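To: structure subgroup
Subject: Chain for Friday's discussion

All,

I'm putting the inputs and outputs inline so they're searchable in the archive.
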Amino acid sequence: MASLLEKITRAGFRVVDAYSPETAGALAFLLFTRTRSTKPQSEKERAALARAKVRMAEAETVRMMIPGSVVATHVFRPLIADDNGGRVLIVHGYRSRSDHMVAMADRLVAAGFTAVCLDLPGHGASTGRVLHLPKAVEAIDAAWRQHGPFDAFVGHSFGGPSVLAAAAGAILHVPRRLPKRIVTIAAPSDMAEVFLWAGKLLGLGPAAQRSFEGQVMRVAGRPLSEFRVDRMAHDLSVPVLAIHAEDDKEVAFDNALALAGLGNHVELFRANGYGHRRIVSAPPVTAAVADFVSRSRDGGQIVGLRLPASVQSPMLGSDTQGDSRRLA
């Protein structure tokens, strides 16, 4: 059931839409890309941030400027004796922050990598009130210039298309930043579907929806139709690992199938039972990411994931090799 605020918002957009669909679409884009408060939104989130507080305080925080924002990175380093020289950039999703990616960072540090967690504009320790795909890619570019090059990108949810866009050079005014490997976790594969969902939520009519989607050309230099994986990353040949849970209620599992369909350089890993958010800290998932990324240092080929028995989980299915198969 829609909340009172949602009903009022829809009513307002219907009024504006009746007079000017173009204005309604432009206003929808402003609302859609405006970031929310960084304060915890629930007791559950407040508890999660409290658990991560000590570890986050141990990281080195580095701030960089991009247009309209000062973005923060949090650097977690291995011991000198364990350092393999590799670096991994971790990008969270919308309404998330680096604090929620600590388990992933720690698993990569244990494998010898320096893990750099990026707070996207308007999230975590980063300033700004606007976030869309070009802004995310600008932030990734800033992290690359400060900390890169990176062996791998790891992107969760909205962070998934963000790292793919950065690697593909999909945002015309930002240089292409191509790591050796890419991991997406519970990521959408077609930004047009996200816009359709948002337009329906706001109650936009057909003309206002077209205006809403047309704003992408203004900020990205390309139409919204270009921001789906088969268009954006069609010529990416680096190894990619797509991790997704079939029980994800926020981003459908079909999105992972779309990415896996790009070719044999993409592996699909079913992390069933972990939903959309718990997936980033699930031990089988963090272990799979560390294993996959480690192959960027040893020159390994794309084969089935080599999960140690200690981290295999019945939630991943009875056949771990089958659950990490590649789809042509």
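Points worth raising on Friday:
The chain has a mean pLDDT of 89.
The first helix runs from residue 4 to 19.

D.
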